[in-house]
C-alpha cells in the first residue's frame, strides 16, 4: 500500500530554467528556418491552380511503345548503376568498418581517422560525388556507379562499425580465451553476430542507391535522370510524367523486395 | 568471516606427507585488482596442482569472475603475479598469452556460442588457439582431423547427432554441453568454468555438472570453477577457495568443510 506521506512524483516534470530557454531557442530557430526557406502562405494558397495545370499537361503520360522501350532501357541502366555501386560499396565497407570499429582490430587513432573520413564522405551529397566523378572519369554510368559506391561506403562503413561494436562480447571472449588471434575472433564471433545487422544495413543501402541513381543523370552520370531533365527542359511533360511514374514503381518495388528479403534472412533469427 | 583453516592451506602435493608431488599448474602470488576506485581483491595467493578440482565461492561482487579473467590474462592485474602452466601471465606478450590460453578450456555461464553458426563450427573454433587461421573459422573449411576431433568431442557430450544444428536453436542444457565440447576439443590441461549451471534449470544443471566433472576426471585436467551452489562446490570440488571482503579467507579441502562453513562467506 502506498504511504501517503512519501513524495509522489508529479505527472509532468516542470522544466528547469535552462531547459525552458533551450525549448524557446529551438522554436525560434525553427521559425527562422521557415523564413530562410522562403515559406509563403500566399504561394501555398495560389499554387494549386498551377499544379493542376501541370497535371493537366502531363496526363496522360507518354505510353508510346518507342518511348517506353527507350525509358525502360534507361531504367535498366539505372538499376545496374545502383546494384553495381551498392555491391562494391558494401564489399569495401567491411574492411573499412573493421578499421573504424573501436576496440576491434585497430588502435583508437586509426578508428578516429577512419570515422572522420567516413563522416566527410557522408557529408558530401551523392550528386556532388557524381559531379566529381564525371570530371574524373567522364560522362556516363561509370561515374554514377562510382558515386553510388563511395556514398555506400560512407553509409555502410559507419553502420557496420557501429553494429560490430554493439554485438554481445561473450562469444568473442570465449574464443579469445581459447588463444585465438584477434582476426580469428573478429571473423568467427564478431562478424557472424553482426551479420543480421549487416544484411539489414546493406538492403537499406541498396534502396538508397536505387533512389540516388534515378537522379544522377541530371549531372550526366548515367541512368534515367537525364530523361527527366530533358522532359522538363523541352516541356514534354507527358514523357517526364512517364519517367516519374517509372521511378516511383521501381523504387517502391525495390523497397518491397528489400523488406521481403530482410524478413526472410533476418526474421529466421531467434 | 571465516578463518583460513591452518592445516589445509597448502595445495595438494605441497603439504601432505603421503600425497604424490604433483606439478603446480597455477600459482598466484599477491594478486590485486581494482576497477576505478573500487578494490575488488587485494594480495591474494594460492597454488593449484595438476588434476585438482577447485571451487571458488563467495557472494556477488567479491571478484570471482575477475579472478578467473586475471588468471587467463583477459584483464590486467594491478599487482602480484600469476603463473599458469609456466607462463608468467602478468608480464607475458600476446604470443605467449595465446599459447598459454591454447592449453585452457573455458566454459561460461552464458555458454557464449556463436549463435548463427552450426554446433560443429562452434566446436571446431575451439581449436583456434592451436591452429590459427581461416581453416578453423568454420567446419566447412576445417581439415579432416579437426572435424574428427570436434565430432569426437560432441560425441563425448552426447550431441554428435546435433552437429549441423544452428547454435541458437539449442536448449540451454544442450548449449552448455556444446560449450563443454568446445572447451575440451583442444585437449586442455586446465578447465575453467564460470558458474556453468547458473542459467540452467536444476535438472539440466546436475546433468551438466556430472558430465563436466566426469570428462575432466577422465582427462586428468585441473579444474577451476565458480559456483553459487554450495552443494555443487562441496560435491565436485576437491578444494574450496572462498572470497570475501577483497580477501581470500577460505582455502580448504572440501571434505573438511560443511555447508554451514561456506554460508559464512555470504553473510
TrEMBL record, chain A:
Read off the InterPro entries from this record. MetI-like, MetI-like_sf, PhnE/PtxC
Gene3D superfamilies reported in the protein's UniProt record = MetI-like (1.10.3720.10)
Transmembrane segment boundaries:
20-41, 81-106, 127-150, 237-254
Q: Does the keyword Magnesium apply?
A: no
Q: Does the keyword Nucleotide-binding apply?
A: no
UniProt cross-references to SUPFAM superfamilies, sorted A to Z: MetI-like (SSF161098)
| One GO CC term on file | plasma membrane
GO MF terms held by the record: ABC-type phosphonate transporter activity
ABC transmembrane type-1 domain location: 75-258
Q: What is its main location?
A: membrane
Alphabetized Pfam families for the sequence: BPD_transp_1
Q: Which UniProt keywords apply?
A: Cell membrane, Membrane, Transmembrane, Transmembrane helix, Transport
The cellular location(s) given in this protein's UniProt record come to: Cell membrane
Q: How does it sit in the membrane?
A: Multi-pass membrane protein
Which family does this protein fall into?
Answer: Belongs to the binding-protein-dependent transport system permease family.
Designated name of the protein:
Phosphonate ABC transporter permease
Query: Which organism encodes this protein?
Result: Actibacterium mucosum KCTC 23349
Amino acid at each position: 500500500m502506498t504511504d501517503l506521506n512519501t513524495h509522489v512524483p508529479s505527472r509532468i516534470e516542470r522544466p528547469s530554467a535552462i531547459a525552458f530557454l533551450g525549448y524557446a531557442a529551438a522554436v525560434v530557430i525553427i521559425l527562422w528556418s521557415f523564413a530562410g526557406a522562403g515559406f509563403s502562405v500566399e504561394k501555398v494558397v495560389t499554387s494549386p491552380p498551377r499544379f493542376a495545370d501541370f497535371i493537366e499537361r502531363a496526363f496522360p503520360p507518354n505510353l508510346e511503345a518507342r518511348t517506353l522501350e527507350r525509358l525502360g532501357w534507361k531504367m535498366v541502366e539505372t538499376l545496374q548503376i545502383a546494384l553495381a555501386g551498392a555491391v562494391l560499396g558494401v564489399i569495401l565497407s567491411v574492411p573499412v568498418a573493421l578499421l573504424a570499429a573501436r576496440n576491434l582490430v585497430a588502435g583508437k587513432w586509426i578508428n578516429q581517422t577512419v570515422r572522420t573520413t567516413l563522416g566527410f564522405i557522408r557529408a558530401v551529397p551523392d550528386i556532388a560525388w557524381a559531379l566529381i566523378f564525371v570530371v574524373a572519369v567522364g560522362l556516363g554510368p561509370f561515374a554514377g556507379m562510382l558515386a553510388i559506391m563511395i556514398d555506400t561506403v560512407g553509409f555502410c562503413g559507419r553502420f557496420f562499425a557501429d553494429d560490430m561494436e554493439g554485438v554481445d562480447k561473450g562469444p568473442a571472449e570465449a574464443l579469445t580465451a581459447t588463444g585465438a588471434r584477434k582476426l580469428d575472433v573478429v571473423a568467427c564471433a564478431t562478424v557472424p553476430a553482426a551479420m543480421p545487422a549487416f544484411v539489414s544495413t546493406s538492403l537499406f543501402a541498396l534502396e538508397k542507391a536505387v533512389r540516388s541513381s534515378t537522379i544522377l543523370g541530371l549531372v550526366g552520370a548515367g541512368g534515367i535522370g537525364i530523361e527527366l531533365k530533358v522532359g522538363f527542359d523541352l516541356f514534354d511533360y507527358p514523357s517526364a510524367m512517364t519517367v516519374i511514374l517509372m521511378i516511383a514503381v521501381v523504387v517502391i518495388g525495390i523497397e518491397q523486395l528489400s523488406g521481403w528479403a530482410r524478413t526472410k534472412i533476418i526474421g529466421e533469427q531467434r | 568471516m571465516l578463518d583460513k583453516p591452518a592445516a589445509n592451506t597448502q595445495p595438494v602435493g605441497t603439504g601432505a606427507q603421503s600425497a604424490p608431488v604433483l606439478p603446480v599448474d597455477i600459482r598466484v602470488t599477491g594478486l590485486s585488482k581494482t576497477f576505478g576506485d573500487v578494490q575488488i581483491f587485494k594480495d591474494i595467493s594460492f597454488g593449484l596442482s595438476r588434476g585438482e578440482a577447485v571451487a571458488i565461492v563467495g557472494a556477488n561482487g567479491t571478484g570471482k569472475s575477475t579472478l578467473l579473467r586475471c588468471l587467463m590474462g583477459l584483464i590486467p592485474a594491478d599487482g602480484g603475479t600469476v603463473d599458469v602452466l609456466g607462463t608468467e601471465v602478468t608480464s607475458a606478450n600476446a604470443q605467449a598469452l595465446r599459447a598459454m590460453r591454447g592449453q585452457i578450456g573455458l566454459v561460461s555461464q552464458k555458454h557464449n556460442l556463436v549463435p548463427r553458426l552450426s554446433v560443429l563450427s562452434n566446436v571446431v573454433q575451439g581449436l583456434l588457439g592451436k591452429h590459427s587461421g581461416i581453416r578453423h573459422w568454420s567446419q566447412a573449411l576445417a581439415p579432416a582431423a579437426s572435424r574428427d576431433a570436434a565430432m569426437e568431442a560432441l560425441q563425448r557430450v552426447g550431441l554428435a547427432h546435433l552437429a549441423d544444428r544452428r547454435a541458437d536453436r539449442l536448449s540451454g542444457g544442450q548449449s552448455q554441453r556444446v560449450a563443454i565440447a568446445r572447451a575440451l576439443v583442444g585437449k586442455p590441461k586446465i578447465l575453467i568454468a564460470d558458474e556453468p549451471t547458473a542459467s540452467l534449470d536444476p535438472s539440466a544443471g546436475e546433468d551438466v555438472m556430472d558430465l563436466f566433472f566426469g570428462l575432466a576426471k577422465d582427462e586428468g585436467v585441473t579444474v577451476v570453477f565458480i559456483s553459487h551452489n554450495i552443494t555443487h562446490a562441496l560435491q565436485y570440488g576437491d578444494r574450496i577457495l572462498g572470497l570475501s571482503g577483497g580477501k581470500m579467507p577460505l582455502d580448504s579441502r572440501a571434505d573438511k568443510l560443511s555447508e554451514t562453513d561456506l554460508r559464512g562467506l555470504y553473510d
